[in-house]
Specification:
single chain, mainly alpha, Fumarase C, Chain B, domain 1, Fumarase C, Chain A, domain 2, Ribonucleotide Reductase Protein R1, domain 1, two-stranded antiparallel sheet, two-stranded parallel sheet, 60% helix
Length: 459
């Protein structure tokens, strides 16, 4: 039995059912129906404007496409999952509705440049949504940082208590990371915003088309200047997933700290009941499951990135069916980061910091030892000598179960005659935090400056 597919002609027999199912991409690419129809409307307008088809035929095609888009959006026209892909589905419905005029739509284009166009348009819109969600999260973190800029907490290196910092300062580190994530997404969007339509299968077309007309109508900045490149590369997909993977890494690190901070071992914060769960057998538990899931889902996005790079790495030019595998990876990465950002945007505003627990932890880790050494340096002692004396004093405190603030001045003078009563002001935790006034430092004024910078940048 002869095939009734739109690409039929070369083959005399129908494709096997399992081959049809294997070849079909409608289940994945159906989400691009709006982009496919919008792109086709611009293509029809160009064909009419250039006289490749009659202007009234172009108008009829555009009206038919508008009706299809409206019907899909309203639910009046369900997408047929038996179709090969979204392009074939739309064209089939169009031809069914307006007759042979609908068959003229595909003049001077191929599914190769059509799918590249749809994918770029869809991902451009998705990048905008991710940027908006990231912006919301960065601002939510800045709000929390401002709220907690006076809370003293241990700053860590190697997960060891290191120096006293503002909790707001710690939070602002993540806001700064998100600013860079936004810039990466914008860069990816900029390079993505190049129109491939008119590249056709790989060699361009003999028709007198106007590629710039279509590009401008669809909001592209420019066109692909090599038709083979236009249909055969998906670096814009890989770049977007890469930017998403880096952002997921930042979200995962933040989630890891939320998990640690909300544990009984730290108890620096409490997450709201709306974004935690309980245990089926342990009634005392409050589990940070949402943060854990963000941390866990980071791995799948890394897999998406490695997947698309592997698909593309050995492909000869130009188009190959392997490239159908691009969309599952990039769509999954997009869906995952958007869901994680939406959850984080709900979770962060409800986070409560526990000031006393943070201060208690800050007071127990000798995190003012550097300031003790700096005190001696200001008095004229070389830093290495001051460092050694401070280390010996810390060792004594550990042996005697004391903290630096509890040693008497006489005990300090056993190590150096440079110690005077003003040393207690120098090692006061709040003073230690507030003295770090260098740009980007942890003083309250510096944290506020960082908050203001993020807000101004994201206006």
């Amino acid at each position: 039995m002869a095939s009734n597919k739109m690409w039929a002609g070369r083959s005399e027999t129908a494709t096997a059912k399992i081959a049809d199912d294997f070849n079909s991409s409608i289940a994945v690419d159906c989400r691009m129906f709006k982009e496919d129809i919008t792109g086709s409307m611009a293509h029809a307008a160009m064909l009419g404007a250039k006289g490749i088809i009659k202007p009234n035929e172009a108008d009829e095609i555009i009206a038919g496409l508008e009706g299809i888009l409206s019907d899909i959006q309203s639910g009046a026209l369900p997408i047929d999952m038996e179709a090969e892909d979204i392009h074939m589905f739309v064209e089939a419905v169009l031809t069914e509705r307006i007759g042979d005029v609908g068959k003229k739509l595909h003049t001077a284009r191929s599914r190769n440049d059509q799918v590249a166009l749809d994918t770029r348009m869809y991902l451009r819109a998705q990048a905008n949504e991710i940027i908006a969600l990231t912006r919301t999260l960065a601002l939510a973190i800045a709000d929390k940082a401002e709220e907690y800029k006076e809370y003293i907490v241990p700053g860590y290196t190697h997960l060891q208590r290191a120096q006293p910092i503002s909790f707001g300062h710690h939070l602002m580190a993540y806001a700064m990371m998100l600013l860079r994530d936004i810039e990466r997404l914008k860069d990816a969007r900029r390079r993505m915003n190049v129109s491939p339509i008119g590249s056709c299968a790989l060699a361009g077309t003999t028709y007198d088309t106007d590629r710039y007309f279509e590009a401008e109508k669809l909001g592209f900045d420019s066109i692909c200047l090599n038709s083979i490149d236009g249909v055969s590369d998906r670096d814009f997909c890989a770049e977007l997933i890469s930017a998403i993977a880096i952002e997921m890494m930042h979200l995962s690190r933040f989630s890891e700290e939320l998990i640690l901070w909300s544990s009984w071992e730290f108890k620096f914060i409490e997450l709201s009941d709306e974004y935690t769960t309980g245990s089926s057998i342990m009634p005392q538990k409050k589990n940070p499951d949402m943060a854990e899931l963000i941390r866990g889902k980071t791995g799948r996005v890394y897999g998406d990135l490695m997947g698309i790079l592997t698909v593309l790495k050995g492909l000869p030019l130009a188009y190959n069916k392997d490239m159908q595998e691009d969309k599952e990876s990039v769509f999954d990465a997009v869906d995952t980061v958007k869901m994680c950002l939406e959850v984080a945007n709900g979770m962060i505003p409800g986070m409560k910091a526990k000031r006393e627990n943070m201060l208690k932890a800050a007071g127990e880790g000798f995190i003012n030892a550097t300031d003790l050494a700096d005190y001696l340096v200001v008095k004229g002692l070389p830093f290495r000598s001051a460092y050694k004396i401070s280390g010996r004093i810390v060792a004594r405190c550990i042996a005697e179960g004391k903290i630096l603030e509890n040693l008497s001045l006489e005990e300090y003078k056993e190590y150096s005659v440079l110690f005077e009563n003003d040393l207690y002001e120098a090692i006061n935790l709040r003073n230690c935090m507030e003295k770090r006034t260098s740009v980007g430092g942890t003083s309250i004024a510096s944290v506020q400056m960082q908050v203001d910078y993020v807000r101004e940048t994201l206006k």
